[in-house]
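Re: your question from the hallway

Yes, I did run it. Sequences:
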Amino acid sequence: MHSNFLKYFDEVARQGSIRKAATVLNVSSTSVNRKILSIEKQLGVAVFDRTPEGVELTGIGSILLEHCRKTLHDYERTRVLIDDLRDLRTGHLKVETIDSVAFGILPQALHQFSQTFPDISISVTTALPDDVMKSVAEGSTDIGISFLLDLHPDVRVISEKSAPFGIIVRSDHPVAERNSVTIDDIASYRLVRTLDARGRNSIIDQVVSTITSPLSTHVFTNALIVAKQMILDNQGIGLYTKIGFIDEIEAGSLKFIPLVQEGLNDMRIGLLVSATHGIDPAKRHLCDVIGRALRMMRLDS
Amino acid sequence: MHSNFLKYFDEVARQGSIRKAATVLNVSSTSVNRKILSIEKQLGVAVFDRTPEGVELTGIGSILLEHCRKTLHDYERTRVLIDDLRDLRTGHLKVETIDSVAFGILPQALHQFSQTFPDISISVTTALPDDVMKSVAEGSTDIGISFLLDLHPDVRVISEKSAPFGIIVRSDHPVAERNSVTIDDIASYRLVRTLDARGRNSIIDQVVSTITSPLSTHVFTNALIVAKQMILDNQGIGLYTKIGFIDEIEAGSLKFIPLVQEGLNDMRIGLLVSATHGIDPAKRHLCDVIGRALRMMRLDS
DNA sequence: TGGGGTGGTGCATTTTTTGCACCACTGTAG
DNA sequence: CTACAGTGGTGCAAAAAATGCACCACCCCA
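Structure:
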């Protein structure tokens, strides 16, 4: 697959001698020597200084070596991944997430994943932040996506992303043109909020217990998709992170305005796995894919 | 240098057809086809699904493709760097820095640089943050390292690093065991401070103009190395970022305790170049090397 | 049903790689 | 001063790999 020059070059640099390297590599020194000469001719510059005792890297040589080692190393990793995939291609993964993430980002990530592991089925359920944390901790869920509030000791955070809260409003709303708002600024507007089925408080109340102004809530719902419709219908404004509304914001129908409020603007979303259970290749890859999708987003403005 | 499989594979994936790719690559389809078959045999798994219209990547194929593209891209970059180096290998670079950076991190970075550009001489001078900024702006210095206080419009920040201020004390000092301190906590201890030769105020006074408690200074010096000796001699405690004391802290003779003080714990150190002057390969590389060394450091605890 | 598209293959040719034997050079031990 | 054991570099011939032509089997679509 890769030219054997990579290995040759690496070994010569390691040994400081063409002949010694050739011995280690089980080939004739002629072959190694000529490969190096050929590359030097190709580059138009020496990669080794010749000394009576052998060879030593030039400055340019070490740059090239860095590239070669990086390539070899990356190939090694890729190769292992492929080998694992070849053998291990069936199974099932459970993902539990806060509902906002289930829109936009997750479908895209799952699509990418299922191209690599077409025979691994995936289940996605939405839950409240604490419940996500709990089911990951007890091992009933493979991968969790949740706010990083109270970290459970049995949970490991694979990757995290800052996701400040802000106001979600229609583009023609009076506050849509502002760069930031405070809780006080929005006190006069009606709020659309999501609560879970059992009617417990939302994450916002957990963080901001003593709110300056009482917020008047107009619509309660247990599904983000309903909240979204309500906001689009001008039934009120939302108090969320940007992540569940990416599509509408990009399309221009909704706007996100950062909120200046201690505790809500340094919120973080994390990718969670059990600290006590192992990570097989498929799980690893799903984490990679979701993590990458998370990192790609701009959630702060 | 690299096997042509990389290009073949990349192009076939791009075109979705072996024959089309072969045309683009100016080789026979036989050759391309056989290379791919050979790799698939080597990996023991298909990288393309064959359809009546051509080929399309399998999951494993896209993983391999990612590796190949990464390799090709990195090679391209390496190649450009080498070509530049071959031609342009003499010259001089001026570096101006705040004194704390001149210890530990800079020597190491310069050593690495001079291995790549052995014939480029470097001068390093230390100066106050504002002076560094000024000489970079007016072009008399190629690369500056300084606190990011008042950004000059002609200065470009190549990379930056959070460097909060804290207390530097001997390991056996009373406050050495604390996790953090406030200005008030240290008001009773004598301070060792650095001032420039002309006796102007240090950076600390610029930021914290209204200090809660007047700090009693015991030793003034214009060289950080003197301050370091004074602290080691128990003549007082220091108020600095961690960066100039890395060696002693790792050796255990000094300790760094973060300071809780608005304006001083969100200080940032930046790598500065002129926004109006060009960046040649050597300068680029020196920036890379210093920037990498900067990022490697843990300055917050 | 035929024509144009696809990937795959047997065979001959060309190109590249490899290894042996040998050269030129250097530092060192006798 | 010489002999020797290292080093990298090279001419030549054998071995191996890559390439291209001509052709096959297959599929889709007019």
